[in-house]
């Protein structure tokens, strides 16, 4: 198993040596720093699992090191090493995120007990991350947010029945993945899953695609062809973007769903096929019914069970694990380094983008990032550039937009760009903008810029 790597930061070499001997005797790996600047450099360059931090340090004070950790949202547990005179400061450090403090002179048993307790606590807190792997194994989806768990539960309910399912969601949210999970989790496992994109097939060909055709039915039909309904026998027929189907085809589909019977184009023989139907759309089908664009009877036939897949902007806590997944997948597909890392600013930029193209847009952006940036570090500027390369013109160019809306949009984009340039360090960004940190926090909340948890306070 991987050894826990602990960084010991103290300006007294004898204290560092004593702590190092105690920890290494127990099997921990250690690194040392005699000042705050060296500690920050090591945190940038080395993977660290635990930080033992003195507050009275040369070059960069210990409290500033702790603040920097919080600003960068580095998920590293911190134990403060405190002299008697700095205990009030050590208590203050707990408010900034430190998990415990050890008073000097350092006692070997106290060091071991505190380190073990902290690591056990962190291990328990991180145990829920295993559910990411469990979710991917079961549903082939990435995420543990409340919004996506609702989808998982709906998938399980739908998979336990043969009822027709209508999946609703914006383009790029993963509706076909949801459909495939419903199919895969229902018995038996070896059935056919036939997907038809109703929006991608020309009107002149969709009838043949669904019902098949006989040789000679039309120019180019040289042989008999089985349609998707026939191929889906005993399995699942997935009708993607069903809202784009013409009224004429809706009527023919409705009859086939009701009777489980149809004829190939140009054929006379009636074909029976027993299949399950899962449909998906990015449209408001009830609205389409009211406008006369979609048959009401077909809508109710398809929507026995309805599952709504949330847009990515409503499950922002899933963006980090999704980005990591796409990085691993793209690296594997392209033969690039598997050790690509994203900086704190890069992660914040990914979380802040609205992602109108949802998960599909995020995946394409990550792929573009890795292909265009051959290094092993992805920073905020690179992420921003990759997003903007394929971003549609903003509403700032919309003549119907009000001056107030345009000003708000510009202010939001300007603040995000400034945050990017400072790797989302709040203190540095506020100084660059010439405003107080509290004012910047207020602006970010008003503009919907979610960089860090408010629980971290304004001390960053």
Radius of gyration: 29 Å
Anisotropy-based shape: elongated
Compute the number of helices. Answer: 20
**Main sheet summary:** 5 strands, parallel
Helical content stands at: 40-55%
- How are the strands ordered across the major sheet? 2-1-3-4-5
Return residue spans where pLDDT drops below 50 for at least 5 consecutive residues. 392-400, 452-460
Number of strands: 16
- DSSP strand content: 5-15%
Class per helix and strand makeup: alpha/beta
Estimate the mean pLDDT confidence.
Answer: 84
Q: What is the terminal separation in angstroms?
A: 35 Å
Explain how this protein is built:
With 460 residues, this protein is of the alpha/beta class. It is 48% helix and 13% strand. The chain is built from 20 helices and 16 strands. It has helices at 13-25, 36-45, 62-71, 87-95, 108-126, 130-139, 146-159, 175-185, 203-211, 228-231, 247-259, 285-290, 296-302, 319-334, 344-352, 358-372, 380-389, 403-421, 426-433, 437-446, and strands at residues 5-9, 29-33, 50-54, 78-82, 100-103, 165-168, 193-197, 212-213, 225-226, 236-240, 261-263, 270-272, 276-281, 305-308, 341-342, 377-378. The strands form 5 sheets. A 5-stranded parallel beta sheet has the order 2-1-3-4-5, sandwiched between helices. A 5-stranded parallel beta sheet has the order 7-10-13-6-14. A two-stranded antiparallel sheet has the order 8-9. Strand 11 and strand 12 form a beta hairpin. Helix 14 (319-334) packs across helix 16. The protein is elongated. The model is unreliable at 392-400 and 452-460 (pLDDT under 50).
């Amino acid at each position: 198993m991987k050894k826990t790597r602990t960084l010991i930061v103290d300006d007294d070499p004898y204290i560092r040596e004593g702590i190092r001997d105690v920890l290494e005797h127990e099997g921990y790996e250690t690194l040392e720093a005699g000042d705050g600047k060296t500690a920050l450099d090591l945190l940038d360059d080395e993977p660290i699992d635990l930080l033992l931090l003195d507050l009275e340090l040369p070059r960069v004070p210990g409290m500033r090191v702790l603040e920097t950790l919080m600003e960068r949202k580095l998920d590293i547990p911190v134990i403060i090493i405190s002299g008697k005179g700095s205990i009030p400061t050590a208590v203050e450090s707990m408010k900034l995120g430190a998990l415990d403090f050890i008073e000097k002179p350092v006692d070997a048993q106290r060091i071991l007990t505190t380190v073990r307790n902290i690591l056990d606590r962190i291990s328990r807190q991180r145990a829920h991350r295993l559910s990411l792997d469990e979710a991917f194994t079961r549903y082939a989806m990435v995420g543990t947010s409340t919004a996506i768990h609702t989808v998982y539960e709906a998938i399980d309910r739908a998979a336990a029945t043969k009822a027709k399912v209508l999946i609703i969601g914006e383009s790029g949210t993963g509706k076909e993945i949801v459909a495939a999970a419903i199919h895969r989790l229902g018995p038996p496992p070896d059935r056919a899953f036939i997907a038809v994109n109703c929006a991608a097939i020309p009107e002149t060909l969709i009838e043949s695609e669904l019902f098949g055709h006989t040789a000679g039915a039309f120019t180019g039909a040289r042989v008999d062809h089985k349609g998707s309904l026939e191929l889906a026998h005993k399995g699942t027929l997935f009708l993607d973007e069903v809202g784009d189907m013409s009224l004429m085809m809706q009527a023919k589909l409705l009859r086939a769903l009701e009777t489980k019977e149809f004829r190939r184009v140009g054929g006379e023989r009636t074909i029976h096929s027993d299949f399950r139907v899962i449909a998906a759309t990015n449209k408001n089908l009830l609205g389409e019914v009211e406008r006369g664009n979609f048959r009401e009877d077909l809508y109710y036939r398809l929507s026995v069970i309805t599952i709504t897949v949330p847009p990515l902007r409503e499950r922002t806590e899933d963006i980090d694990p999704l980005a990591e997944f796409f990085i691993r997948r793209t690296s594997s597909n392209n033969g690039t380094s598997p050790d690509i890392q994203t900086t704190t600013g890069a992660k914040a930029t990914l979380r802040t983008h609205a992602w109108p193209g949802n998960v599909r847009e995020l995946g394409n952006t990550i792929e573009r990032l890795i292909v265009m940036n051959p290094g092993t570090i992805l920073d905020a500027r690179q992420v921003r550039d990759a997003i903007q390369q394929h971003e549609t013109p903003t509403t700032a160019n919309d003549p119907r937009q009000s001056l107030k809306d345009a000003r708000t949009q510009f202010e939001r984009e300007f603040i995000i760009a400034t945050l990017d340039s400072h790797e989302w360090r709040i203190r540095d960004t506020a100084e660059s903008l010439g405003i107080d940190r509290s004012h910047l926090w207020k602006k970010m909340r008003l503009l919907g810029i979610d960089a860090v948890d408010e629980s971290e306070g304004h001390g960053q």
